[in-house]
């Protein structure tokens, strides 16, 4: 049996994560009534969402955003990736902590803070959480016009997000910062959830493993909502190659950002990432462990700013926030 504490609190989540406590299923059903059809007792006899069903997962996340974040409209095509809200929120909270370390323990908030989401996706999830939690502004880029249109509609339909999120189409799929940012832009930090798989077959196998772990059954039919569309989870060389490209390009925007950051799912990729960051002469590198459920990941962040430049940045952008 699960201990009482583990049933009530997800201790691996960040202390400010709104989803740290056990889901209030009655409250979630109230805001999204359709969710009730996908709630049933789990193997411990406790009511739970059917996490092996992509429809249930999407309804749950809609309910979480409505109940905890006040987002009433969150619609996007079923073929797109449905992000798990608790894990995405953790990334935002850890980046807030990183900023606070450089700001005498106070998290800088408000319109002066600008964040860049690399691959904003159709769901616009990182900007939503960052705006609601810290009132930051966001630039979100994506190579898919339909994803940009979907994200922009979410922004336009929720009044709390209006004028806070700028969704921009990346015309060149080989570029990350070029074509989106100007040389005079100042970005306090970037977030990135890079494509994980190197091929369609790799993605298919990963989906099958995920479904089997959740349901205990092997499903030979692709479940699209777990897989996402190809550019969300697949790129040549997978996560490692994508991050290497990001590191190389970040060198040319070294004074435009305070912190660059990305998720790194595979621990085996860290050695090569650190080596590349040393090669481009990053001045400071941070690795922040994350854990949600049974999955462990980490954020790798780096900056090219000297201590003096960091102080100047803080004084000019964060003071009196």
Under the CATH scheme, the architecture of the largest domain is: 3-Layer(aba) Sandwich
Strand portion = 15-25%
Rg value: 19 Å
Structural class by SSE content:
alpha/beta
Q: Give the count of helical stretches.
A: 12
Tell the overall outline: globular
CATH class identity of the largest domain: Alpha Beta
Which series of helices and strands comes N to C? HHEEHHEHEHEEHHHHEHEEH
Strand order of the largest sheet: 5-4-3-6-7-9-8
- Helical content class: 25-40%
Task: Quote the distance from N terminus to C terminus.
Answer: 47 Å
The CATH homology group name of the largest domain: Vaccinia Virus protein VP39
Per the CATH scheme, the topology name of the largest domain is: Rossmann fold
Extract low-pLDDT stretches. Answer: 1-8, 205-215, 220-229
- Provide mean pLDDT, rounded: 87
Number of separate structural domains: 2
Written account of the structure:
By secondary structure, the protein is of the alpha/beta class. The protein has two domains: 1-69, no CATH class; 75-195 and 235-318, Vaccinia Virus protein VP39 (Rossmann fold, 3-Layer(aba) Sandwich), CATH 3.40.50.150. Helix content is 40%, strand content 17%. The protein is built from twelve helices and nine strands. It has helices at residues 4-8, 25-31, 54-69, 85-101, 125-134, 145-157, 200-215, 224-227, 230-233, 238-250, 270-279, 307-318, and strands at 39-41, 47-49, 114-118, 137-142, 165-169, 187-192, 257-264, 284-292, 295-303. The strands form two sheets. It has a seven-stranded mixed beta sheet with strand order 5-4-3-6-7-9-8, sandwiched between helices. The chain has a two-stranded antiparallel sheet with strand order 1-2. Helix 6 (145-157) links the parallel strand 4 (137-142) and strand 5 (165-169). Helix 4 (85-101) crosses helix 5. The longest helix is centred in the first third of the chain and has 17 residues, at 85-101. The model is unreliable at 1-8, 205-215 and 220-229 (pLDDT under 50).
